[in-house]
Amino acid sequence: SPLRDKHVVVTAGGTREPIDPVRFLSNRSSGRQGAALAEAALKAGAQKVTLVNVNMEVPLPEGVEEVKVSSTLELEKALDELFDSLDVLIMCAAVSDYRPAVVSEEKLKKTASDTFSLELVKNPDLLAQLGARPREGKVLVGFAAETAGGQAGLDFAKRKIQAKQADLLVYNQVGNEQGFGDRPNQVQVINRQGEILGQAAGSKQLVAEKIIEIIINQSILKDAA
Ligand code: C5P
């Protein structure tokens, strides 16, 4: 397998941004697609698969190494520590674009006012930060869920892969009966030139296997094998 001496890192789940000791801001990502990707990478013969567990709601596949984080800043630190040793990074986790500007040490109290404002500050774009680093021989894979369909959605995805300097982007059209809950996932994988390298529709397992196959076909990994 072209992955036999490769370390694959997959982020899965969704970040939680603390507000106070008992509250957080988050999203609905369960970590299912990330777990399926880690399992598919192991099946495809990867030497080592690290699953960065970002509040996953599903069990981890057997055989992966787990790194547990919760917030975007924790994820940033974990990826920083893993970056040198990894060969493939699949950024499947849903990362919050913003976090509360201040994390209260005490539980916030209800006030007399009928409204409450929470100030948010922008989180770093982790994939873009890693994409800007020198990375000979490493393959960076991003995800993009877009509600726009057809050419417009694909154009957004092309702009995203270029902005983040990733090698591959898994573009997922959400809404219109796709991508949510038990409905089959449908994805297209594009490269930096915007070419569609492949597509898959079906279960998260099937989609994961197809994505891993496309990653394996990248010349960087092929040449090394
Ligand atoms: O920009 P957008 O959130 O649509 O990009 C999605 C991709 O970028 C995913 O791969 C996600 O893990 C990654 N991302 C990130 N840091 C952020 C936001 C998204 O690494 N702050």
Structural class: alpha/beta
Shape: globular
Residue fraction in strands: 25-35%
Strand order of the largest sheet: 5-4-1-6-9-10-11-12
Beta-strand segment tally: 12
Provide the gyration radius in Å.
18 Å
Could you estimate the helical fraction of the residues in percent?
25-40%
Compute the separation of the termini in Å. Answer: 8 Å
Listing every helix as H and every strand as E from the N terminus to the C terminus, the arrangement reads EEEHEEHEEEHEHEEEHH
Please give a quick description of this structure.
This protein is of the alpha/beta class.
Description:
- The protein is of the alpha/beta class and 225 residues long.
- The protein contains 6 helices and 12 strands.
- The protein has helices at 32-43, 72-82, 126-131, 150-164, 204-216, 219-224, and strands spanning 7-13, 17-20, 23-25, 48-54, 65-69, 88-91, 98-100, 120-122, 139-146, 168-173, 185-191, 196-202.
- The strands form 3 sheets. It has an 8-stranded mixed β-sheet, sandwiched between helices.
- Strand 11 (185-191) and strand 12 form a beta hairpin.
- Bound molecules: cytidine-5'-monophosphate.
